Amino acid sequence: MNCKNTAEFALELDAKDELKDYRNEFHIPLQKNGKEHIYMCGNSLGLQPKRTKEFLNQELEDWATFGVEGHFHAKNPWMPYHEFLTESYAKIVGAKPAEVVAMNTLTVNLHLMMVSFYRPTEKRHKIIIEGDAFPSDIYAVESQIKHHSLSPETSLIKLRPRDGESAIRTEDILAIIEREGDEIALIMLGGVNYYTGQVFDFEKITKLAQDKGIKVGFDLAHAAGNIKLELHNWGVDFAVWCSYKYLNSGPGSVAAAFVHEKHHTTNLNRFAGWWGHNKEDRFKMPDDFNPIQSAEGWQLSNPPILSLAAIRASLSIFDEVGMDKLVAKSKELTNYLLYLLNTIYTDRIEIITPEERGCQLSIRVKNGNKNLFDAITEKGVVADWREPDVIRVAPIPLYNSFHDVFNFYSILKEEL
Length: 416
Known about the structure:
Blueprint: H1 7-16, E1 38-39, H2 52-66, H3 70-73, H4 86-93, E2 100-102, H5 106-117, E3 126-130, H6 135-147, H7 152-155, E4 156-159, H8 170-180, E5 184-190, H9 202-211, E6 215-219, H10 231-234, E7 238-241, E8 256-259, H11 305-321, H12 323-342, E9 349-351, E10 361-365, H13 371-378, E11 381-382, E12 384-386, E13 390-393, H14 402-415
Parallel strand pairs: 1-11, 3-4, 3-5, 5-6, 6-7
Antiparallel strand pairs: 2-8, 7-8, 9-10, 10-13, 12-13
């Protein structure tokens, strides 16, 4: 694409965009002057689909009409409601339907997965994670290590980029696996690093790790609905993700998990709850736990239907569009943003996101001066500041336009 840094060119791109009408499917927040915000923060909280209200109202009406009988007689019966999300999630993460389940919240799911997949021994006890992983992930893995009476100082390997670089090189990850593989029990990476926006090489990392007898899991909070995933084909052991970023399900909404089918019939250790029990005799209240032979076997409790309804509303849009078209537009949007930023000749900012990326670009501000972020916020940009020195910007293909990207660039350039 031969780009131009003009509003006219951005509008030309929008006119050719086959997904442009989906912007009208979302509520765009307004500024005090009545104009739409330039919303570039879908990697933190996705915008509300207009159809969400319809999906929620249906369940509120059925609750009012049926009471407890809504579990069986609602238009969308609540008893199997989480199953209505299964096919959609499977397509988004590249899985078989039996391998995915909507449940709990992200860090809860991460703990549940590590109960099953982090089984340290005297020799094999280490976990690999990014040094700048989202803090909740680090807290979780450190607490799991301590739960097994081990020390993070000796059992946690934190990956860091080389001096003077921002991204972690794949060859450096593979070198650590080769060197310390006999002592590593689990690799637990963010599929897309929340800070830099780097996408990790799932396939290479998973293959080498599993050849060494290491279990592999990914936190897909910034990957699900953002990049093309093939979890089943890559052989990933497990993954977890939230639904309120790229998946637009509302603040704090129910998360999800993936467990590869090769683990469904194995006698893995797990924390159990009645919703993971065999559906055929769940309500006979048997004394012994008999897990469902799928990812559903990791469920604990019946899920909140209103939250699932909001997820289902958003996933219905993903079903219509498909990840291939979303990823294609995403690349065009982010490449256009990168082109525009590179036309700004200044030493006050630098892009730290590598070529392996999804929607997000992370802009490092010299000396960590937050005044620039505050200034663009005052001009109507909704982006995200992350300490100590980064503005995260994510043009979302479902509702951001090329003109949004150009307007963001124009405001940033003016403030610089």
